[in-house]
Write a structure and sequence with these properties.
single chain, alpha/beta, Rossmann fold, seven-stranded parallel β-sheet
Length: 256
């Protein structure tokens, strides 16, 4: 058990198909005490879900575009659990019309919204966690991203731009956090059928392409992404920071 004795916060669990849920289960299986956060409208569903991993706590983290919601959530976690060893940021959102329409039609408001929720929230969460002195020595932070940050993926649009900003933020945060001995990395997961993925036009065709062209000729699972997250939380990855690790069955390395 590579996470025995560690406490990890998994932010962004929505349902049993969430990649964040895969991370929660993997962390539990590796011996960690798991603390989940979710939106207010999914609290009952997540509370029922965590019965599968006994001892897991659930907290509501409201709209992360408002600092007071992040502050309240982290304060409650610190009060009830003390310092933590790992934190997963699995939070993202874009307006449906900005995913369905051509990217050039993205509104100023829609662009700002996607950046605020999907990218800036990582900076705000990490800063507040450090200010509250709730990160244990050697704490590891992980954020989820996607290949659409690197290449133009039909239907990913403004979310791809937000994820590109998220990845750049991880690199800059690694420098600031490294002074205190904390690490931060990103996992670029292959496409997975999640609730969020439903907002992407013709998503099923993306899965078909990955299965055809990826070196391992299959799509990734939430367990595989979760296991990679557990590794980044663990001391086994103690020299890794500022990296974006692809967990996509090799799809990102294939050319024509």
């Amino acid at each position: 058990m590579i996470l025995k004795g560690k406490k990890v916060v998994i932010m962004g669990v929505r349902n049993k198909w969430s990649i964040a849920w895969g991370a929660a289960k993997s962390a539990y299986e590796q011996g960690a005490e798991v603390i989940c956060t979710c939106s207010e409208d999914s609290i009952e569903k997540v509370q029922e879900l965590v019965k599968e991993i006994p001892g897991t706590s659930v907290y509501v983290c409201g709209d992360v575009s408002k600092d007071e919601n992040i502050d309240k959530c982290l304060e409650e976690i610190k009060k009830n659990h003390g310092k933590i060893d790992g934190l997963l940021h699995a939070i993202a959102h874009a307006n449906t019309e900005d995913l369905r329409n051509d990217f050039i039609l993205t509104s100023r408001e829609g662009y700002a919204h996607a950046q605020d929720v999907s990218s800036y929230s990582l900076i705000a969460i990490v800063r507040m966690a450090r200010e509250k002195e709730m990160l244990n020595e050697g704490a590891s932070i992980v954020a989820y991203t996607y290949y659409g940050s690197e290449k133009a993926i039909v239907g990913y649009n403004v979310m791809g731009v937000a994820k590109a900003a998220l990845e750049a933020s991880i690199r800059y945060l690694s420098k600031d956090l490294g002074v205190d001995g904390y690490r931060i990395n990103g996992i670029s997961a292959g496409p997975i059928k999640t609730l969020s993925a439903k907002g992407i036009k013709d998503f099923s065709s993306i899965l078909d392409v990955v299965e055809e062209r990826a070196p391992l000729h299959r799509n990734v699972t939430i367990k595989e992404v979760g296991d990679s997250t557990a590794f980044l939380f663990s001391n086994m990855s103690s020299a890794i920071t500022g990296e974006i690790i692809h967990v996509d069955n090799g799809f990102s390395v294939v050319g024509v």
